[in-house]
Amino acid sequence: MSDDIALSEAERGAGIVRCDACPVLCRIRPGRAGACDRYANEDGKLVRVDPLVLLAKPNLARVAFVEGSAAWRGELGKGEGAFVTGIGATTTYPDYKPAPFIVSSKHDGVDMVTVVTEGIFSYCGVKVKIDTDRYLGPEQAAVRVKGEAVGHVTTAEYGSQMLSLGGVHHLTGGSKKEGVVTCEALLALCNREAVELSIDGGSAVIVQSEKPPIVNGALEERMRVGCGSAAIGMFAPQWKDHVDEVIVVDDHITGVLSEHQGGRFLDIKPAGIRVRGRRSTPGRYFQVAEPGLGWGGTNVSDPLEIIDKIDPKQAWPGLKLLMVSTTGEHSAWFELDHDLRPQPAAMPAAVRDVVERIAENCEPALCTVLFMAGAGGSLRAGVTENPVRLTRSVRDTLTKVTLGGVPAYVWPGGGITLMVDVARMPEKSFGYVPTPALVAPIEFTLRADDYAALGGYASRAVSLDDVLRAHKVRVDEGET
Amino acid sequence: MSAVAARLSDGRLHLQHGPIDLIIEAFGATDEVERAYGQAVDRFGDILSTLVRELPTLRRPVSEAYPLLQGPVARRMAEAVWPHRSVYITPMAAVAGAVADEMMQALVKDRRLDKAYVNDGGDIAIHLTPGHELRAGIFAAALDGVARFTHDRPVRGIATSGRGGRSFSLGIADSATVLAATAAAADAAATLIANAVNIDHPSIERRPARELDPDSDLWDLPVTVAVGPLPNDAIAEALDRGATEARRLRLCGLIEGTALSLCGQWRIETGGTALAQVKTG
Questions:
Q1: What's the pLDDT band for A77 if we cut at 50, 70, 90?
Q2: A179, A171 in Cβ contact below 8 A?
Q3: In Å, how far are A181, A358, B13, B161, B265 from B158, measured between CA atoms?
Q4: Do B143 and A22 touch (CB under 8 A)?
Q5: Which of A301, A330, B19, B229 is found 20 to 30 A from A360 (Cα to Cα)?
Q6: B37 vs A363, more confident
Q7: Total-model pTM
Q8: Do A142 and A97 belong together in one domain?
């Protein structure tokens, strides 16, 4: 052809790019797509535009297509058993018209309809579970990003701390900056990026879905095996022949072997070592120290600090004492000298083995991010002309709700308030609008006859193949 | 990226290369259908590369001289637009339909098929034998109409132009669906009829084509980029203009019928000859 492949100076100056993906060799202006709608000019770069994401069903064979030469008669495979997600589907917000994709398909001989859209969620946020016993901050304390309050600390759960971030009050109820920062933080967390949070009166923690938390610069590797009391119960028989006393240091419940039911059961004699704090039941102590970043989630760096006194009537010189944290991360071995003072000594190998076993039994510490949002009347109106029937249909489990193909937990009670683990969703599932609000994919799947019955836009249903033909798709392998 | 072929889960053949995206379905004895698909796949390999060799000529408007072209698809394009040379038109106005026609010829050659279609992004070539029929849905805002094709009527091509498609339009039609003897003829006519559905109104935004696409065959002609709310009389006026053009082309013998839509309103132009049955609603 006579056209020169090279772009002119003027064309380059205008930001035009040359697409060489096929022989048409389109010249594409910034922000526009080539003749095929598959490639576009994004800020001067040629990019593949993949607005729709398909979840390939793992139980169906997929064969990669072959390119080039005589072997090109390959199988593309993308038409086989795929599920259209809302990612890139765009939205018709405010939904006075039907959702962008209403896809009909057959499952086990039953006609099904999936209404595919992207929802704009002003009522949304994330619930973050951080596996750590380190002290992150007091309950109700503000959680900040760039100095703006984006949420708060809620309850401590087993081996973990919960944060509640976002929500409509931070998104749109505060200052404009608060809303923008909150939206950015939520977007990053939902797209599985790392966000640094600082907690009033507490720690700075870097949170990222499916990654260990980093608390004040220290990577949290393990969850505790249990509280101090649980650790005593689990490992007492293994210590029995090697120690006279074990104290498992824990911010919640510190365990003392000889006083604990687990030690008494093994006929371990009283050792007379009294720990600080408030006794709950025999061998179980609350509040032996302040919460912190030291041993077992306390502020203790020298474990002997938690020993209140040693009773000379019960203790004896040469008594062998193990102190260990609930993760096995910290441990120390002492023997009482002639004056019944604990002296550091070399830990016997058999005891060391059990300490390592504590560590081995600790699960990896992770952050988990659950997206939580309410599907409002407007979004539901894009699904059916009679939105409350959609709610009822979801309640009655006739309609399955998924986000990016991942089944959502739908809260009981009114409305469609749902939660989903962002780690299971395809990459880059979330977007935002400047409202500020998050944009998330959402799909409602139900039987075609149920859809018609609830006032759905049944005449808008198109086949999966038609979607594939008319739209450029990215296939996500999904979960296997 | 070279051409790819795939079978969709329901058995239809999907061929794609660059901007060409075909869905093909043939009906008949299984072995005949499979051989037909094999012929289509074999033919498809060099369609695009042959076409792009003559792209500079294909992007020039036809006027006094019949364009000298060699490729079979390119020649179909020239043939389809030649009757319209009194207005601005380039062979590109018929590219999708011409590809569909060429692929249909390859599909059916020496094969015994009941019926078949080659759908090139909405521009469709059809093949029929006595006793068999094909139906095409016309989709603008919703499934708005159905066209039914039978062997005893001359329609073998259907094409739709309008806003929202991949090509630029000079008009404002949501859709202009044309039935003609070939897909290429329908494609060229649909382009012109969609252009004719037009009116001046402040809520219509237009920009020179090459500001959007430096390769556009429409050069600096103003193409429609947005249509805001229009009063009902403006919609009716624009549709009437389109229907007038459709009637003119039908009376010239170039097409068999047209269905036009704009903002939910429709016009059907078949002259009462019922060469193909079209119904909307």
A1: very low
A2: yes
A3: 53, 74, 19, 10, 20
A4: no
A5: A301
A6: B37
A7: 0.49
A8: no
